[in-house]
Amino acid sequence: MFETIADGWVQAIDWLSAAAVEPVLELLHLGDSVGNPDDLAEALLIAGIQIALIACVLRPLESLAPAEAWQDRKLTNVDRRSTLLLVSLNPLFAFLALTPLANPAGADDGVGAPFQGLLQFFPQIQAHPLLAFGIYYVIYDLSYYCMHRVQHAIPWWWALHSMHHSQRQVNCWTNERVSWLDVVLQSFILASVGQLMGVDAAQFALLELVSQFMQELSHTNVRLGFGRFLGRVFVDPRFHRLHHMRLDPDRPHLHDCNYGQVLAVWDNLFGTALYGEPTRATGIGDPTVDADNGRGVVAMQWYTLRRFWGAFTRLDGWKPQEVSFDANYRPVPVSGLGPRAFTASAATSRTAA
């Protein structure tokens, strides 16, 4: 079955490359200067499928059974525009860029064979592609969980990641509400894991498509859970929505939860899982970050970079801790402010919205 899906995927790429990508490159006299036509076709295919799934499946779900009822959806518009701009810039490009490093020229000159990845150490793994894919996916998802924990712990990385959390109306388009610099960092980390494990580009592309859809589903504003058992294995919208909750001054560490991307196993294993809480307002109380809700796509990127630089160039920006940002975009340890520091600003933000 897996081989059939993979073969169909390759045929779709070949068709799109021959029917659209190559003619456009030839018309523009670009040739291979912007990359292999098949690689570009694969990225475009992933982007098209992602957008179609969001618009035709997830967005209707939000209308049928919303987790939060909004008077309007104006804050979601910037997320949709971000998705249309960013959705094709997936880790597949980073994976392809790293391939020459994983297979350096001259590695098979008789001195030693090229490195084939850690999967080669599993006996007969080449005869079981579905098992190989499953093993890699588990490692990939664990890598994302660990990276996500660091994004929240290191102030300069939180300065980038905070833009994603600033959304007060978390919705089916929110997954792509991210700093472009953060995308580059994440993509090369996750692509490096793929190269280390030894998966090929086709497998990595399929994995990205599945992962992206599951992440978009988990951000969807819908009352959907996977049940008592599957909800402990996979991340569902109820589970991930708690990760986006605003700080609760009566339980200030409650929002430090549910970091998983697709598998909820890691949160349950490492003690960061939270279940059973009612639907809570999403966003960030820090007014410097919350201001992203009044900005466009480019402005959000600019102010996020200012927060990043304010943290990256200061010692407090490298110390693992929860921070807010002052008027000059410098990190301020939350431990010195108290849990109710942003209560007034949160109320003001909800009124303004």
What can you tell me about this protein's structure?
The longest helix is centred in the N-terminal third of the chain and has 28 residues, at about 35-65. About 35% of the residues are buried. Strand 1 (about 325) and strand 2 form a beta hairpin. By secondary structure, the chain is mainly alpha-helical. The chain has a two-stranded antiparallel sheet with strand order 1-2. It is globular. It has one domain (about 1-100, about 120-350). The protein is built from 14 helices and 2 strands.
Strand order of the largest sheet: 1-2
CA-based gyration radius: 21 Å
Pick out the low-confidence regions: 105-111
N-to-C terminal Cα separation, in Å? 49 Å
* Helix and strand pattern: HHHHHHHHHHHHHEEH
Task: Assign an overall shape.
Answer: globular
Main beta-sheet strand count, sense and barrel state: 2 strands, antiparallel
Number of helices: 14
Supply the key terms.
single chain, 353 residues, mainly alpha, 14 helices, globular
In short:
This protein is an all-alpha fold. The chain is built from 14 helices and two strands, in the order αααααααααααααββα.
Secondary structure elements and their pairing?
Blueprint: H1 2-27, H2 37-64, H3 77-86, H4 91-102, H5 129-153, H6 155-165, H7 180-197, H8 201-219, H9 227-230, H10 237-243, H11 265-270, H12 287-290, H13 297-312, E1 323-325, E2 331-333, H14 343-352
Helix pairs in contact: 1-2, 2-8, 4-7, 4-8, 5-6, 5-7, 6-13
